[in-house]
Amino acid sequence: MNIFGFLAPLLGWIMEWIYRFIPNYGWTMILFTLLARLLMFPLSIKQQKSTARMSAFQPMMQEIQKKYANDKQRQNEEMMKLQQDAGFSMTAGCLPMVINMFVIFGVIEVVYRPLQYVLLVSKDVINEMVTLANETLGTSLDAAHYTVQNALINLVKQNPETFSDLLGDKLDSVVNFNFTFFGIDLSQVPSEVGFFSVAIIIPVLSVLTMILVNVVTMNMSGQQMSGSMKVLPWAMSIMFGFITFTVPVGFSLYYTASNVFALAQSIVLKKMYNPEKIKQQVQEEIEAKRAERKKKKQVKVVAADGAEVVKDVSQAELDRIRLERARQMEDERYKDE
């Protein structure tokens, strides 16, 4: 198992449960994707809300970066002040993306090893099947290779009697395992079967839908990407495009379905948290907080001669007075050291 695929046992159990009711690997993958999207929808709502709010702060942040371009310390201080005044976090929308990445790697692991995670054949039996296939059928399978379990399923379909003793009551479920989806064998690896195979359709669709998701998401977020952030979505598209051509087609089907559901989800989320409406709301919140900070408050201040004086001060002045008082008390406490 790859280090990021620790969710594979759980995801495999869910897929195995769906497969019992709909014995087709392709439709199982699509229904699993829909279920995963529904379960993560609350997190997606949080991410959309955070992204929409960030679009309101972006011009302010850019203004600070431009104004203090030559003073990084002051720039950081002003950024911190903006975050405190506005009450937002730069990393608030990261959690859904991190979870989605772990789900993707978990799905890849399941697609690599359907014999283990969906059909629930133990690792020991799988290793024995590899040995038996190499000795009896003249194959040269590598037990550690990521496509070996897909190959084993196809070998069992062709030679059920060879594996009957090893698989026992699991034999029928492996023989009847439905790998096809609209005539496409989801166990095939595009880079191995050639670019003129019909199996290439699904990986191409996964890349095209991912590009469409990037375009729609950026337009709906209300943010203006710049620098590396502008390039990142396209770099991710290239990376996953490469992955889809080097792994079984089942993963590409999952990713295509995920992208289609993501598009529908983006439309719903924009109606819930429209960036333009959130911008106006944030501006009103900031203005209200600034007005509150400028309001005068009556406080007692100790003058230089020790007398208490009542003064009208703003929140900013009060914060400064408290800071000075704290420093005086600190100096007084440690004056003998």
Element layout with pairings:
Blueprint: H1 8-21, H2 25-39, H3 41-67, H4 72-86, H5 94-112, H6 114-117, H7 123-136, H8 148-158, H9 160-167, H10 171-175, E1 180-181, E2 184-185, H11 190-193, H12 201-221, H13 228-244, H14 249-272, H15 275-294, E3 297-302, E4 308-313, H16 315-333
Antiparallel strand pairs: 1-2, 3-4
Helix pairs in contact: 1-2, 1-5, 2-14, 3-4, 3-14, 3-15, 5-14, 7-8, 7-9, 8-9, 12-13, 12-14
Domain Membrane insertase YidC/Oxa/ALB C-terminal: 25-271
Organism: Ruthenibacterium intestinale
Transmembrane segments: 25-45, 88-112, 195-219, 231-255
Radius of gyration: 29 Å
Q: Give the helix tally.
A: 16
- The spatial strand order of the largest sheet comes to 1-2
- Give unreliable regions as ranges: none
The ordered string of helix (H) and strand (E) elements is: HHHHHHHHHHEEHHHHHEEH
Q: How many domains, as an integer?
A: 2
Number of strands: 4
Q: Provide the helix percentage.
A: over 70%
Outline: elongated
Distance between the termini: 59 Å
**Mean pLDDT, nearest integer?**
81
Class based on secondary structure composition and strand pairing = mainly alpha
Largest sheet: 2 strands, antiparallel
Query: DSSP strand (E) fraction?
Result: under 5%
